[in-house]
Amino acid sequence: MTSSMPSQHEAPPPAEADPAPPLRRSRGSNVVGGVCGGLGRRFDLDPVIFRVVIGVLSVAGGLGLVFYGFAWLLIPLAGEDESEGRRLLMGRVSGASLAALLMALIGCGIFLSTLHSGTVLGFALILSLAVYGSAVWSQRRRVGGETEGRSDTAAGLTVAEAPPETKAPPIFESPSWWKDPIVKDGSTGKIAVGYMWGPHGILDEDGRVNGEVPKPGSQWGPGPSEPGRPAPSVRRSPLSIGGLVFLLALIAGGLGTGLTWDTHPLGTSLQAGLAAALAVFGLGLVVSSFLGRTGFGTVFLTVVTAGLLALATALPDRISTEWVRETWRPASVAAVQPDYELGSGVGTLDLTRLPLPAGTTVTTHVGVGAGQLKVIVPKSAVVKLHAEVGLGDLQLPGAPPGDIDIAPGRDVTRTLTPPAGTAPAGTLDLSLEVGLGQVEVTRAAS
């Protein structure tokens, strides 16, 4: 007769693989914020790999600082549920949250300054994809190995261990408020009290215990004047280093801008100074989390500096640090250059004396980084005009004098014909471009 009962030696089904550990910042394997240690534990890789990659990405475009700063803010520490970003939003500011925020701001500033370099961005993207693929492969390999190991182990187990014997909970014999009856009818009486930390006995309505006023040093510890009472401790506020950090940031910003003022465009020079100041602010916030303290003013100046750095990256490269005045007066068609460029200042293209016979077309381009561009065209010339102003004003013939209208992104294409009663001469094809400032086109009186 065949038994339908399962055999004791039958192997149980293989156990399911444990999920990967949750992503948490490491407490023991941490150099700055424990992000790389947590990534190594999550993906079963050496944290040094992530540290090297983040360091390379930080230097090449700032993406490493952006990633590490936001990861520090969003990933909770091991054993905790709240992240630094949540604490920061709830008003609980700490040195770690400020350091993470500053790191992200510095990374964003460096990243904005390298947007024009496609090679750097391509290298950062390829390296990030390679590390991500390696991490996913390592995690799947670990999960597959653990599943196979558990299957082999489960096949060798024959008898499951019995669960531990249940025990009755301990009996708490001390009286307490939730075990004794509570009088709710408002009648005068005596209530038995038995707090673990307070007086024991019968409590009257006037606060007496067993008819006596409890002594301060009997049940509640030593009295205020007794020798057994410890002396109150006085906490000393850490030394403020906000003023020193601000002074060092000013010096670093001045040096960074001054050393590049004569050899680089205005935007690049400002970026160097602001980046140096931002680095000093960041270092000061990091130091304040271990030694000394900084106030709200330092945090505010850090955010302002990061915003100014982002604006400096948007300045056109043609804006120079030297303000000049330049006037071009070509006397013949052959003398008209195809391009006229000026970094910063006032540029004037005077075509009043340019002989322009009928049927002749002259083409030129004039660009000014920041300042004013004035173009004076002959009275009888037909002007095909294309003008672009990044931020500023555009004045054309026929506009009311003094009508200044500053707006971003001006782009005008227009054909200007000679005044009535004037025989048309040749054609001027003008391309005018100003990054920040004004374009003014006027027609000569004669």
UniProtKB/TrEMBL annotation:
Q: Give the source lineage, highest ranks first.
A: Bacteria, Bacillati, Actinomycetota, Actinomycetes, Kitasatosporales
Annotated region described as Disordered, given as residue ranges? 1-26, 206-234
Q: What name is this protein filed under?
A: Phage shock protein PspC (Stress-responsive transcriptional regulator)
The record's section on PANTHER family has: PHAGE SHOCK PROTEIN C
Q: Name one GO cellular component term.
A: plasma membrane
Q: Topology versus the membrane, per the UniProt entry?
A: Single-pass membrane protein
Pfam name, any one: PspC
Which residue ranges does the record assign to the Phage shock protein PspC N-terminal domain? 22-77
Q: Where is the composition biased (Pro residues)?
A: 11-22
TM region positions:
48-77, 89-112, 118-137, 239-261, 273-291, 298-315
Record InterPro entries: Phageshock_PspC_N, PspC
Which keywords does this Swiss-Prot/TrEMBL entry list? Answer: Cell membrane, Membrane, Transmembrane, Transmembrane helix
| Location of this chain's protein in the cell | Cell membrane
